[in-house]
Amino acid sequence: MTVSPPAPGGPAAVEVRGLVKRYGGRPVVEHLDLTAHAGAVTAVLGPNGAGKTTTVECCEGLRTPDGGTVRVLGLDPAADAAALRPRVGVMLQDGGLPSGARAGEVLRHVAAMYARPRDVGELSERLGIGGFARTTVRRLSGGQRQRLALACALAGRGQVVFLDEPSAGMDPQSRRAVWDLIHELRTDGVAVVLTTHLMDEAADLADHVHIVDHGRVIAAGTVPELLAHDGPHGTTTAARVRIEARPGLDAAALAKALDEATGPAWHVSETEPGVYVADGPVDPAALAAVTAWLADAGTLARTITTGGRTLEDVFLDLTGRHLR
């Protein structure tokens, strides 16, 4: 499924058209299109191996495309690397930080490379770096390294910032501080391109989402658009019932009971052993049908929960639930 993107407020800062990248002759990215705008957060989501990191690395100038075009602020990231470097911030998932240097020294060194850097003291305070500023990078925890890498990516006041898993390994307090900073970047007109495996992070931060699988964008739109669009088997619903009970119950019988109770609009599946998900118009009659179905099966539910489809539900519906 592909949702037409809305007309964004800011100009395009990153434009990818027909991107192709191969490793050893094997296509990893195939004719991928992606746009990110100034003053907006664009999330790029996908399973491991889907091609999202390769796509972002082509935008960062770290890899050379085998086909298509990539433009960042109107420039070619490979050919115009020297011109782009002062205007772009990059946070790599592995940090790319010198392991023997102290955290504070790394941040001051990076900031000194820019003509108009952010205040190092302010960045350190916002991200709690002062507490480990004299600790060498190799001795930092995973979350501390992430905070330092983010500070380095923001030090130059870039017009475009690429953030790869920015809150991975962080505690809730650090994660909230990172989210607040990203919201501020958007307000300041920065184009933020974010890759993450945390669906709640994408749902909270992103103005626009691209879901990538097998080297292509398979869905794109705002979070509300993706949540409201067709679910599995053509169902269009933002509501669902999730039941945990014993495995092997008759999901088709539940779908029939729900259709009879509220109208023929339900899709029911056993998404994993003993977990049944029913998508449709949730109301008291639907819940009564669920309890009656359980009673007919001679079993009790461990839990019954209701709520809207989440971005994670959409992601799994589109990319599958099997391990890669």
Automatic annotation (TrEMBL):
| InterPro entries in the record | AAA+_ATPase, ABC_transporter-like_ATP-bd, ABC_transporter-like_CS, ABC_transporter_ATP-binding, P-loop_NTPase
Keyword vocabulary terms for this entry = Antibiotic resistance, ATP-binding, Nucleotide-binding, Transport
Q: Which GO terms describe its molecular function?
A: ATP binding
Kindly list the places in or outside the cell where this protein is found, as annotated in its UniProt entry: Cell membrane
Where do the ABC transporter domain residues begin and end? 14-239
Q: Does the keyword Transmembrane apply?
A: no
Bilayer topology term? Peripheral membrane protein
Listed SMART domains: AAA (SM00382)
Pfam families linked: ABC_tran
Question: What is the protein name for this chain?
Answer: ABC transporter ATP-binding protein
